[in-house]
Amino acid sequence: MAQLEANGVTIDYDIRGSGEPILFVMGLGGQLVDWPEEFVDLFVDRGYQAIRFDNRDIGLSSRTSHEPPTQRQLTRSFVTRRALDWDGYTLVDMAGDAAGLLDQLGIPSAHVVGMSMGGMIAQELAIGHATKVRSLCSIMSNTGDRRNGRISARLTAKLARRPAPSRATAVDESVNLFKLISGPHFNPAQFRILAKAAYQRSFDPVGVARQTAAIAASRDRTPLLAGVKAPTLVIHGLVDPLVQPDGGTTTANAIPGSRLLAFGDMGHDLPRPRWKEMADAIIVNCQRSTLSPEMQRQA
């Protein structure tokens, strides 16, 4: 792993393989290591260069100094469906980090794959830095319209009762959280290994709170997504309780010519039995970027 300065922040990243670059953008509170190496290798083995990185305020990338909002402020924003009034950063700024990373690496453009919050950042990258995005894949995400892709009421109640994680409970709480949001293929013992590795690398609940605020303070991307020209694939789980399935359908409907791939056995996770199917679909979408617009529609 390595670090560089981009868009005013220090970004920790790693690169695997060679060939056409794919930038993997992680979700809320997730570190670059939360993209499973075996999943990433499905692309490396097909001749792509995989770039993973830590978003600001997480992992080994820079911490900001913004005061995170209170839970009451976040709840009010959620209930009223209004953007949070916060003087920190937004997803636009985080997309600027990703664009800056590509610039500093000397990469003019890349295929972009984003998961959850990472899907939101990837969408902003395609909106504000269109020439840098060869193709776009938005996984288990939404358009920020605050009506679709919301947390289920049942999950909201369960999350409200969860204790704040501490250093002593971080790994257990991570496992417990993913039990709530994952699909039927979730393996607690397997996930615990990943959660422990992530904890040993970095633990910063305040950074997660700031990233949550960035999501809540961000704009509705729906009208802007109509201008996205990059070939787009939307992947979503039909049993996702954290970003409900209409988040995926709304995203696909917002981006002209996009494709929607939905899995009935996928929650807010990357189910291992679906990895190859996902990778194949993402690679097909990458290949569409070399076609003319007319041929893209026919592909």
Plain-language structure description:
With 299 residues, this protein is of the alpha/beta class. It has one domain: Rossmann fold (3-Layer(aba) Sandwich). It has helices at 37-44, 71-80, 91-104, 117-128, 153-160, 170-181, 188-201, 205-216, 222-225, 246-254, 275-288, 293-298; strands at 2-6, 9-16, 20-25, 48-53, 110-115, 133-139, 232-237, 259-263. It has an eight-stranded mixed sheet with strand order 1-2-4-3-5-6-7-8, sandwiched between helices. Strand 3 (20-25), helix 1 and strand 4 form a beta-alpha-beta unit. Helix 3 packs across helix 4 (117-128) and helix 6 packs across helix 7.
Main beta-sheet annotation: 8 strands, mixed
Strand adjacency order, main sheet: 1-2-4-3-5-6-7-8
CATH homologous superfamily placement: Alpha/Beta hydrolase fold, catalytic domain
The ordered H/E elements are EEEHEHHEHEHHHHHEHEHH
Radius of gyration: 18 Å
The total count of strands amounts to 8
Q: What percentage of amino acids are in beta strands?
A: 15-25%
Kindly identify the CATH topology.
Answer: Rossmann fold
Shape: globular
Helical region count? 12
